[in-house]
Amino acid sequence: MRKTIVRAAAVVVIILLCVFLYNIGKAHTFLPENKTIELDGMKYRDYSEITISIDGGEEKELYPRDRIKVEVSGQSHRIKISAVSRSGEEIEITRRFRVKLRTKMYLLSLPALIEGDDAWLQEFTPLN
Amino acid sequence: MSKNESTGRKFLYQVERNLVPILFLVISVIAIPLSGYSYGYLIQEILIRLARNSFLVLALLIPIMAGMGLNFGIVLGAMAGEIGLIFITDWQIVGLPGMFLAMLLSIPLSVLLGLMTGKILNMAKGREMVTGFILAFFMNGVYQLVVLYGMGTVIPIVSQNLVLSRGYGIRNAVNLIGIRQVLDTLIPLKIGGINIPVATFLLITLLCFFIVWFRKTKLGQDMRAVGQDMAVSEESGINVERTRIISIIISTVLAGFGMIIYLQNIGTMNTYNSHEQVGMFSIAAILVGGASVSKAKISNVFLGVGLFHLMFVVSPMAGKNLIGQAQLGEYFRVFVSYGVISVALVLYALRKRRDKARAGQVLSDAQGEEK
Description:
The complex is a heterodimer. By secondary structure, chain A is an alpha+beta fold.
């Protein structure tokens, strides 16, 4: 009886470990963009220059109308933004966010994020 | 060996015992200058290959300890590892979590395959190696059936990059970009321009400690007893068949892990061929290191992988520089890997016969002195 319990417990631990590894290792693609966007009637203008770093990774620069691709893994992420507005104002923001496990791609509207709009993170379905 | 044997005979005996590594050392010493490679390049290549292959070769030690010879069944573990890799690639699990998830996924498959192999090998006592060799061919057929026809139909595969254009079956090559060298580059260390895959070596060291510890456990001692004499072990209450099965299961599981470490280093999986040569090359490597069918140490693994792959690296270029054809070196690689297994097995049989004759002579001399 004790042997069976130990074996069952070992199986449960392995399954839980698999679920944990699945969650932290699941790859997602982020498409951060520096484009003028209109969300629910609000218009957010692109910035002169935006530098981003996701999860402490390499810093990347985005100029007006730029869109880049960043591969990440896991559900929790941190984005660090340094932006220069058209009026020359410098802004620095760090934001933590979570993504859905099963969604592969997300569009990150950086001007909307800087302006504080919650709709800055949108699921993205590529055209086949 | 009797005390009155001359030093010369003792030396010859030692040479004979280590003939295969000596042979390889001599070939390598001749081939290195012919190849024209720098020592830095060779050291880097050997380090990479030690990291890539050692785990797989270490998987062979436990069945040898249990007297089951060289386990050609590690190919089955390699297949389990590959199936784990196919799943994580399909699910897009990347990085170290992906690699470890592939390892975890390979465990139940490896255990089942190991259990089956162990049971079959128990039915073929004394002919374990050839049985394991043929079993690997048989299971390769089953693997191909599952991967070529089962995946995408019975087993769901979502990623279009993995599935053949007809809609089912896995493509010939699986890109492991998500886990490529994640372990090797986890702890970056560069000394004198040479990259050292520290994390991989740490994992290999951990396995070495496990093997050393395992030998001292009750099960490990039972395996050694079974390896020495099955009949005596049975008489002393050891469940011989169970012990042999466990040794094969452990070996198969470790082979699955080894294959994943091997493929994360390469970064591409040849779906239908990657595992085929694994058994042959691992066994050739351990034999080159001076191991035999009945005795192998951890040092044999590292010496063997080092020497075997040193020759792998230098022989094509040495062949090209010597004859003008790189193909000669390629031919030499395959010829040597198969040849070394044959030579080692023949030497083992000769040595066993000679040791038996020598023991008989010693016994006869002792009886003569008593009279």
